Amino acid sequence: MPPKEDTKLILDHLDNWKRYAALNPAFAEAFAFLESPKATSLPAGRHSVSDDIYVNVVRGPGSGRDKGKFEAHRQYIDIQYTFEGTDELGWKPTAQCTTDGKGYDDENDAELFTDTPETWVLTPPGFFAIFFPEDGHAPLCGTGQLGKAVVKVPVV
Fold this sequence. Notes:
By secondary structure, the protein is mainly β.
């Protein structure tokens, strides 16, 4: 088990986002966007929130655990907000992960892993998960129709 300071995953309801605002100067803006009707009405794809923050809106069927992509990011923190369906997210500290051999992709800010997540959490509508660079994560592993807004906040 990793030391406590390496464990960063946060899972909570959107109503409680202010508890985490001090963790990053851009969190207040990112969560204000998630509280707006725009967050759940945008079409699928990438959209700008501000100069430094963007959102990927995902609409479609979940992949299930067996087909989930296990990844981590270095330049951005993910705030993954579920607004439709129930997503299932895998998690494991990156310090315990094995890269897929391709290494970190700087252009896409992604590193893929061959591991299986050690923890799975459900995020029903109204809930969010925050993944820091230390958090390997497998998103969109729920089944059924999913709607998510994944806000990308720069690491500071």
